[in-house]
Known about the structure:
The chain is of the alpha/beta class and 296 residues long. It is built from 15 helices and five strands.
Amino acid sequence: MPRKPRQPQTITIKDRIAKAMPDLTPAHRQMADYVLANSFRSATMMIDELAAATGVSVATANRFAHTLGFNGFPAFRAELVRGFESALAPVEKMRDELTRTATSAEVMSAALGDNLNNLEMIRKNLPADTCEQIVSALLGARRVLVAGFGTSGFLAGALAHGLELHCNYVQSLAGIGGPAHGARTLFKLSAQDVVIVISFPRYVRDSITIAAKARERGARIVALTDKPSSPLAALGDLTLYLQTDSGFGATSDATVYAVIEALCAAVARRAKNSVKSAAAMTEFVLPWLHNEEKTK
């Protein structure tokens, strides 16, 4: 059987520095030491910023890139960024935005435009069958657990709040106990349970781990994420892919929140006795609500 040809091995920045180290000038060695100790920070810097951080001139910084075998600093920085693409995407987008002149109103208008474009794209491409299956799964579940950490923790709480009136039992795992507490909750899962996992760039590892463990326990996984290449996509039994582009952040949380409200509306529409439940809940919380009639 013929052997498969070997894939060319990528030469990393560390490999290049190690090979060049014996012949580096003191200034270049100083830069090399900084880059090795601060790889991520170096990847966020432009040439003048890295030069200032290492106490050398811009020309010296550019010669350093050439010494490592690159045709200039942009190629050197591109190699540094490799592997940090998801984490650095918001930084790069913000850097690009800040090169443009704009008023505060124009920036706000652009941010609102991002959300409008996202929601219109999502609305046009909503998978009807998947939406029906998700609503049926939530209403038929013994328990619904909602997992999201980092910024998605707020979204998880909003989704749990919107579902609790209509589902048998709803719990957000984004509580004060953090991921460890959520992991303990998974131990009691069964095939009658549904776990909704929310994860967008930058993907939080805890969310992916929760999804994998819940799947192992037999629970059905509903995933809210951005694209098929998301680490969450392969774990979802039912997945909604949401466009969440944002000029100044990793994800437009407002877009995700709007979809959460839409999902809760669909669940309320299909739930039995939804009007009766809403009326009973309103009566229960009435003592906590401001009543203008009582103040007259």
